[in-house]
Amino acid sequence: MTLKEVSDLILQHNNFEILTHDYPDGDCIGSAFALALALKQIGKNARVIMTERLNKYNYIYDMLTESDFKAEYIISTDVADEKLLGSNKKFYSGKIELCIDHHKSNRIDAPYKYVDSEAAAAGEIIFKLIPLLGAKYNKDIADCLYTAISTDTGCFRYSNTTSETMRIAAELIDLGCSSAEINKSMFETKSRGRIELEREVLENMIFCAGGKCAIVYTTLKMTENLGDDETEGIASIPRQIEGVKIGITIREKENDYKVSVRTNDGVDACSFCKRFGGGGHIAASGCSLKGSLEEVIEKLKTAAEEVL
Q1: At residue 59, what are phi and psi to the nearest 5 degrees?
Q2: How confident is the model over 111-164, as pLDDT tens digits?
Q3: What is the pTM for the complete model shown?
Q4: Lowest mean pLDDT among 9-18, 83-92, 122-131, 203-212
Q5: What would you measure as the largest C-alpha separation in the chain, in angstroms?
Q6: Given this model, what pLDDT does residue 191 score?
């Protein structure tokens, strides 16, 4: 589909639910709320469906006033696979009618899909879609989209950042987005609990493949007094080490382990995660594994040594 076809399709409907993935990040939340705000601006009904709300994004949640309506059209943004819907999967499996995403590994089976794997964030796609819907940018939408794009590019440091990404960010700043405040909240502010977690993570770091792979992990016990927003971003730690080509973060959940893979020097994180049924982007991907922590670590070490 073209974006114009996406906008024409959306304009045929009036009552929308916009789905996000489990443990939503800034791009997932920012793109979904920006789209919902734009739809409400042109007289449609829209709400965002989440499995949880992270406190650090309260400034976005407060932008959208909930209204009572019966949804007739389901859109997903930044969701690459139905299994990423978490606890909402049982309600929405097979019901997504329009998928908007930027993950090359997208597996959503929907009647209509717009996937641009060249976009640094789903927020870039929504930025281009909004004027086609007949909506106008405003500060709230600009804050949502800046959050989306800045978080998925690591504050414009990751390799997915393009010149177009920077031009869109500049337009959002011109529109009055609170870029300095968002940058401080997303990338500089940490609770004491988060600092203590980072210390423990670093103490337990594992190296393999001749030091080219670094593995860190968090357990339920390590994070029991922290919110999910305070554990976000741990995945960037192992990749920051000089000489590391594959940085792996293992996060214990109730029934399995969520694995985030970040890579340097052209190593394909998406291909790595596909070994375990996951996917994502070339430099940032994820998957889930079952077993004990020791077994999960060994599986990942073996795969990293084979790749490297």
Answers
A1: -65, -25
A2: 999 999 999 999 999 999 999 999 999 999 999 999 999 999 999 998 899 999
A3: 0.87
A4: 83-92
A5: 58
A6: 87
What sign does the CA torsion over 130, 59, 104, 76 have?
Answer: negative
Single-letter code of the amino acid located at 71: A
| Alpha carbon separation from 198 to 65, 95, 194, 207, 217 (Å, rounded) | 36, 39, 6, 17, 10
